[in-house]
Amino acid sequence: MPDQPAPNPVPALEAAAEAVRQQLGLAGFDAAGVARLDHFITAQRGQVAAGQRAGVVQAFGCYLGECLVQVHGGEWAAGPDGSTGVGLAGRLFFNPFYLVSQQLDRGDAASVAAFFASVPGRLGAPAAGRKRWIS
Q1: pTM higher than 0.85, yes or no?
Q2: What is the DSSP letter of 30?
Q3: Is the Cβ–Cβ distance between 54 and 64 less than 8 Å?
Q4: In what order do the strands lie in the sheet with 92-94?
Q5: How many CB atoms lie within 10 A of CB 48?
Q6: Are strands 92-94 and 84-88 parallel, antiparallel or unpaired?
Q7: Rounded percentage of the chain residues whose pLDDT exceeds 90
Q8: Better-predicted residue by pLDDT, 135 or 96
Q9: Residue 47, number of CB atoms within 10 A of its CB
Q10: Could you report the per-residue pLDDT of 39-97, keeping only the tens digit for each?
């Protein structure tokens, strides 16, 4: 039996993002929606049961990732480590699931809204060059 290509995960990621948008009553996939998501994560921080955490991170990460796709022209992609995330400008990769998890753990110190607001600056920054000397 020939190897079958892996199914494209993007439609499922987009569907999960849309479900979160509808459940939270968010107007779209934009900075305002990320700000509301940020407040919701903060409000839910001590209330997410251990058995529900993975699902919450997955759902909210899909929404955050779709916002990165739609606002900053990113695309869902696999990272160098095989994780799912969003690639931007052909040189940046962000894992929205990790970002959501960090805010659940650390609160405002790991705000997804602050991260999202930082993306334009990251996109405008020159690509990090490789050091050619030994320090």
Answers
A1: yes
A2: S
A3: no
A4: 75-78, 84-88, 92-94
A5: 15
A6: antiparallel
A7: 79
A8: 96
A9: 8
A10: 999 999 989 999 999 999 999 999 999 999 999 999 999 988 889 999 999 999 999 99
Query: Of 88, 79, 97, 90, nearest to 121 (Cα)?
Result: 88
Contact 100, 41 (CB under 8 A): yes
- CB within 8 A of 91, min separation 6: which ones? 127
Cα(130)–Cα(22) distance, rounded to whole angstroms?
44
Q: What is the model's pLDDT at position 51?
A: 95
* Residues 106, 38, 94, 83, CA torsion sign: positive
Q: Which residues pair with 78 in a beta bridge?
A: 84
* Residue among 90, 64, 63, 60 at smallest CA distance from 77: 90
Query: Rounded CA gap, 112 and 74, in Å?
Result: 16
Rounded Cα–Cα distance for residues 103 and 78 (Å): 22
Give me 116's structure tokens: 């999202």
Provide the pLDDT confidence category of residue 1 given band limits of 50, 70 and 90.
low
